[in-house]
Design goal:
This protein is α+β, with helices and mostly antiparallel strands. The chain has helices at 2-11, 66-70, 168-177, 246-255; strands at 12-15, 20-23, 36-37, 46-49, 52-58, 61-64, 76-79, 85-93, 107-110, 139-146, 157-166, 195-198, 213-217, 223-231, 239-243. The strands form three sheets. The chain has a six-stranded antiparallel beta barrel. A hairpin with a 2-residue loop joins strand 4 (46-49) and strand 5 (52-58). The chain is globular, with a radius of gyration of 17 Å. Residues 1-31 have low confidence and may be disordered.
Length: 267
């Protein structure tokens, strides 16, 4: 059910005026629609995985989506900004990733420290004491690997886009609009305490970006990752990220305690 739901959500586009739902053919070579080409050196902590994206959060840990970690058996290959490619193994996956819910979509991959020599890690992961970093209207940066548009052949290139965080009400409306009744799970697609959204028409994330970050620059200029890309609407509207706060962030901190060092003192 989860795989069918995920695929349906990504490929369904609402024909709002006609009250219809149009299903589009899968397109595995899409990512960061409306984004601009970026040098890897601008986001050196970005990690290219097999058909996915991730971020280096310690010398030996890569944060990505659980979907990416479990999409195929065995290790997946991780390529870093220093040009090194190694096998990454699954270190931990967040409990609760059920087949009937799009939630708890977080995983940590393990890589050898020798492979990440000279690669900077994500400056900060999560921001529990500064909740303003998660508020609607805050400018976020979305980054991922992949092609720029439908049927494009430039898959594997790093792209970035700046776009405001959307409100939970707006995101709920977007996903309910393309998952109307009689589907009984329609009201449950957007879970505010677990998800955060950003993007819009022709400016979003798509297949190939799963596991990539949503980042914000907080008041002191420090870049903070506040989300991990989970699912979207085939580049047609805002994208859904697993929000790095609350239970999600608590789980990550229990698996990778060093992420807490970047939070600063509790205010």
């Amino acid at each position: 059910m989860k795989s069918l739901l995920r695929r349906w959500i990504r490929l369904a586009v609402a024909g709002a005026a006609a009250g219809a739902v149009v299903l589009m053919a899968p397109n595995p070579a899409q990512a960061v629609r409306g984004g601009t080409l970026s040098e890897w050196s601008a986001y050196p902590y970005m990690v290219r995985l097999d058909g996915c994206s991730g971020t280096l959060i310690t010398r030996t840990a890569v944060l990505t989506s659980q979907y990416c970690a479990l999409r195929s058996p065995g290790p997946r290959m991780a390529t870093f900004s220093n040009g090194v490619t190694v096998a990454a193994t699954v270190y931990s996956t967040m409990p609760g990733y059920a087949t009937d819910a799009v939630s708890y979509d977080l995983a940590v991959l393990s890589v050898p420290a020798s492979a990440t020599a000279g690669v900077p890690v994500m400056p900060q992961v999560g921001s529990p004491w500064r909740t303003e970093n998660y508020q609607p209207g805050v400018q976020s940066t979305l980054v991922g690997f992949g092609a720029s548009a439908h049927n494009a052949s430039d898959f594997g290139t790093l792209r970035a886009i700046d776009t405001p965080i959307r409100s939970d009400d707006a995101m709920d409306e977007i996903f309910f609009r393309v998952t109307p009744w009689p589907w009984p799970w329609a009201d449950d697609v957007w879970i505010p305490r677990l998800l955060i959204g950003a993007g819009g028409t022709a400016r979003s994330m798509c297949d190939g970006d799963e596991g990539g970050p949503m980042m914000v620059a907080q008041g002191d200029g420090r870049l903070v990752q506040v989300g991990v890309y989970s699912f979207g609407l085939n580049c047609q509207d805002a994208a859904a990220f697993t929000e790095l706060s609350g239970a999600n962030l608590a789980w990550l901190a229990s698996m990778v305690p060093s992420v807490q060092f970047g939070w600063g003192p509790c205010t």
